[in-house]
């Protein structure tokens, strides 16, 4: 039997990933904040580089999304200031698509460079890609109370008991666990797990929720709760 885990390790924070969006265009920051918040990220914004430095000290973001053209301190100067922390990702946004601009941003320490205008789905994919590279351990193992999901090996255990899950069941349970305690609308679950272009029968969701409940031993529907008329919520302490 393995030794008991030290108390400090048990109490490591496992809250939502923190994102700071730095742009002087309120429409851009609002758009990104809304989209990422709906995906379960905790998001704060800043209108320029100097304000961003204060937020970084207080908020300790896991990833910073930085526009290039801003007053007071531009995005390249901010990138130079923030580069060097191996666990904090940096993505530059810019309306400029010249090769030299991309090279300059990446050489200053940015992980990625995204040209405006962009689709939110592409930004989200890049955010997740940077997080996987910067925080591989955190990205691979997801813990929610007695539930543990190893996303690298696509395996799951509940109270040490192995769960035999299909790929779709694993993806659905993983998304529920990422947003545990949160009421997730049916459309959001379908779009996130089945894909944004899903046009099938939404009874698929009910079927897979039923499969998961059976495999989790959730006969009383206390782990995956139905919120009538809205969707579902995973409750794990």
Which fold does the CATH topology of the largest domain refer to? Rossmann fold
Task: State the distance separating the first and last CA atoms.
Answer: 24 Å
CATH architecture of the largest domain: 3-Layer(aba) Sandwich
**Computed structural class:** alpha/beta
Short description:
The chain is built from ten helices and twelve strands.
Spell out the blueprint of helices and strands:
Layout: H1 7-10, E1 18-22, H2 26-38, E2 42-46, H3 49-59, E3 63-67, H4 75-82, E4 89-94, H5 99-107, E5 112-115, H6 120-134, H7 136-140, E6 141-144, E7 147-150, E8 155-158, E9 161-163, H8 167-178, E10 184-185, H9 186-194, H10 203-216, E11 224-227, E12 231-234
Parallel strand pairs: 1-2, 1-3, 3-4, 4-5
Antiparallel strand pairs: 6-7, 7-8, 8-9, 10-12, 11-12
Helix pairs in contact: 3-4, 8-9, 8-10
Give an overview of the whole structure.
The structure is a single chain. This protein is of the alpha/beta class and 237 residues long. 42% of the residues lie in helices and 21% in strands. Strand 4, helix 5 and strand 5 form a beta-alpha-beta unit. The N terminus is likely disordered. Helix 8 packs across helix 9. The chain is built from 10 helices and 12 strands. The chain folds into 2 domains: 117 residues, Response regulator (Rossmann fold), CATH 3.40.50.2300; 96 residues, Arc Repressor Mutant, subunit A. 27% of the residues are buried. The protein has a 5-stranded parallel sheet with strand order 2-1-3-4-5, with helices on both faces. The chain has a 4-stranded antiparallel sheet with strand order 6-7-8-9.
